[in-house]
Amino acid sequence: MIEQKSSPAAPALRPVRGTALCAIGALALAALAWVVRAVWHLRLAAAGEPVSGPPDQGGGVHRPLNTLEDSYHLVDSVGSSVTAVCAIAFLFWLDRMRDNARALSGAEPRYSYPWLWLGWIVPVVNLWIPRGLVADVHRSVFPEHRLPAVVNGWWGLWLAGLAGGVGLIYADDTDEVIVRAYHGVLPLVAADLVIVAAAGAAALMISTLTAAQQRRVDELARAA
Fold first, then answer.
1. Model's pTM, two decimal places?
2. SS3 per residue for the chain
3. Fewest beta carbons less than 10 Å away: which of 91, 139, 145, 170?
């Protein structure tokens, strides 16, 4: 039986390796989806805008989409669905890591449970709370260690992907993004690649923090 440095109310340690693998797999699929999106942006730019003009003709008139534009709508829908699944898998991993950190350290998390979900969507505070949630997982168990550099790297790439409304959250609808691809594809592709890099950094971060926490659990088991 593992002795835990925790208060009587602290939760028991929860298995996290499987959750980590699921989150990493979901991130790989999300990265692939954004690579495909970047390819379609380039295909739209190479094809050029049809002589009939943009899909939205103005005044509530929309012309029929051509085959390439129609396929981009499918790519966009699939990519958005995969990204949503990835977000859920990531948050379930973070939830388990937070519970284990509380059990190992005996300290309450700096941010209460609702912020695990709200911290990503509430304006302004979403610029620092998600990073804080992840950082607390490591610091509460390893206060004597520096925060792994991959955490800051992941967060910097995440913020870069959000910047300008051309990355994870589009300010325009799908047809307007198609027009952007026709007339200025480079910012779209750059945002796509930043998000792919952010997904890779997130996967590395999950692997790093999960392994570190597991080592602490193993140390306690040997000591017991």
1. 0.87
2. CCCCCCCCCCCCCCCCHHHHHHHHHHHHHHHHHHHHHHHHHHHHHHHCCCCCCCCEEECCEECCCCHHHHHHHHHHHHHHHHHHHHHHHHHHHHHHHHHHHHHHHCCCCCCCCHHHHHCCCCCCHHHCHHHHHHHHHHHHHCCCCCCCHHHHHHHHHHHHHHHHHCCCCCCCCHHHHHHHHHHCHHHHHHHHHHHHHHHHHHHHHHHHHHHHHHHHHHHHHHHC
3. 145
